[in-house]
Amino acid sequence: MVKKTLFILLLSLFSIFSSAQDLTPKQIIKKSEDKVRGGAQAYTEITINIVRPKWTREMKLKSWAKGTNYSMILISSPARDKGSVFLKADKQVWSYIPKFNRVTKLPPAAMSQSWMGTDLTNDDLVKESSKVEDFKYKLLKDTVIDSLLCYQIELTPNEGTNIIWGKIKVYIDKKDFITLRNENYDEDGELVNVLKASEIKIMSGIKIATKLEMIPMNKKDSKTIMEIDKLDTNQQLNASFFTKQNMQRIK
Predict the structure, then answer these.
(1) Neighbours of 169 (CB within 10 A)
(2) 174 DSSP 8-state letter
(3) Helix or strand or coil: residue 31?
(4) Cβ–Cβ contacts within 10 Å for residue 1, how many?
């Protein structure tokens, strides 16, 4: 009886291991992206700190997202930027700056530009590009980050996409599918920046990294730190929320 129980236990463990091994790089990336978004739809409050050798600056923002097609970001502080809004809807991205009282569509070239003076790009904030659809993948040797066994995947852009990177490497926790490290390389293979994730917690029933640090390689003692203060995956959002008209109304 003991031998039979042990056999069943070993068989179950083998089945779990085999199913994990059978995941394709695309499926792994998809699971990780779903984690980053907090599920099918989510409301998030985030504190951003821009760190420079001689100064720091703090920003706070609110974010609403539905799937991969819709996201809205509202800056709530500091006062000079309060009320600025960024919207992504069906591959189109717009910005609203209160002092100009005008909604402006961002061209594809603007997606690679710095967002609000941070080390993030416009694309980083609204996730206009998708690692699932815009890249081809290569599964590299597993590695360990912060004592966690991780998938290591190399991504290269598909032809015809507006991706500025020559390649990207992502390191994804094999147990919870949390991206712990993201490396962006230019077309010459030089490392441009690194995104590090830490402080893993359960928020709104989801296990996520609550602290993200974007570190540019060409700026000494500089980085942008993002900390998730609140995550709510129970809000009901529909496509009508993510409109240019609503950019001037949300608070």
Answers:
(1) 17
(2) T
(3) helix
(4) 5
Nearest CA among 196, 199, 193, 142 for reference residue 168: 193
Structural contact between residues 184 and 170, judged by C-beta atoms closer than 8 angstroms: no
CATH number of the domain to which 97 belongs: 2.50.20.10
Q: Which residues pair with 63 in a beta bridge?
A: 44, 73
Predicted TM-score of the model (pTM): 0.84
How confident is the model over 140-174, as pLDDT tens digits?
A: 999 999 999 999 999 999 887 778 889 999 999 99
The span from the CA of 127 to the CA of 86, in Å, is 11
Q: Is residue 229 part of a domain?
A: yes
What pLDDT digit, counting tens, does each position of 105-127 carry? 988 778 788 889 999 988 777 66
Which residue segment(s) compose the domain that 180 sits in?
23-248
Q: What does the pLDDT read at residue 36? A: 67
Can the peptide bond before residue 78 be classed as cis, meaning omega within 30 degrees of 0? yes
Domain count, the chain: 1
Report d(CA 155, CA 138) in Å as an integer: 6
5 part of a folded domain: no
Q: How many CB atoms lie within 10 A of CB 77?
A: 12
